[in-house]
Amino acid sequence: ASLLLMAGVVAAVGLGRRLARRHLRTRPHLFSLLLEMLSTFQVCACTNELSLLGDVEPKPHAALTLTYGFTVLHGLTLTGSTCNPCGTLQPMWGGGTSVEAGGLKIGAQFLAAGLARVFMHFLWRLEMAESHSGALTQGCSNPMQTTEMQAFCIELLFSVVFQLTILQVENVKPSYRVHVIALLITMLVFAGGNLTGAIFNPALAFSLHPNCFYDNFFTYSLVYWIAPSLGKL
């Protein structure tokens, strides 16, 4: 049921992207913002659902396989979108994107992340899958299982490694590049998932753990917003 749900999200977003491309050709700025919103929504919604499947047997092989598979799927279906505020900072830093345009795109990403969380909560209330039972009562699921300083360093390091890889594979054939990036993300999740969640995406972190930001905003913003942003720069 969870796999069908995520497949439905991917299909719906794909339809939305196609409609946007057809009707907003003459408005490139609006099209770019809508595309970023839809893409970030897909990543956040699917990752919210994947986070409930961490205990699926055999552990951790099933969760890592799903992580790899859906990362490849995102890479193939969301071409042209960063789905990550840190990815938007890179062209802003290099002068390729204006501060206004970049700020709007980052705002769209966080808005989509919040909408994805609300949407998944609505579906979890329907209890379409066994994993949905009790998902709404978790509150802050506390992904940080280490000290604040170690968590900060881990997210910073992972963001640096991820950005360096992106820069190195820019000229690789897209069909190969998505597998390289998916393999890297899966390896990072395996290495640090039990310590910080290995998120290195501020919008995704907000979508996965909003209650944690409400409870301890400074700590979680330092680890999941500032650290990956510094690593990207």
TrEMBL record:
Keyword Iron (UniProt): no
Q: Which keywords describe this protein according to UniProt?
A: Membrane, Transmembrane, Transmembrane helix
| Recorded superkingdom | Eukaryota
Q: Which Pfam families match?
A: MIP
Q: Where in the cell is it found?
A: Membrane
- Has keyword Membrane? yes
Q: Which residues cross the membrane?
A: 181-200
An annotated GO cellular component? membrane
Q: How does it sit in the membrane?
A: Multi-pass membrane protein
Q: Which GO terms describe its molecular function?
A: channel activity
InterPro entries, per the entry: AQP11/12_channel (IPR051883), Aquaporin-like (IPR023271), Aquaporin_11 (IPR023266), Aquaporin_11/12 (IPR016697), MIP (IPR000425)
The UniProt similarity line reads: Belongs to the MIP/aquaporin (TC 1.A.8) family. AQP11/AQP12 subfamily.
**What is the official name of this protein in its record?**
AQP11 protein
Q: Organism, per UniProt?
A: Alectura lathami
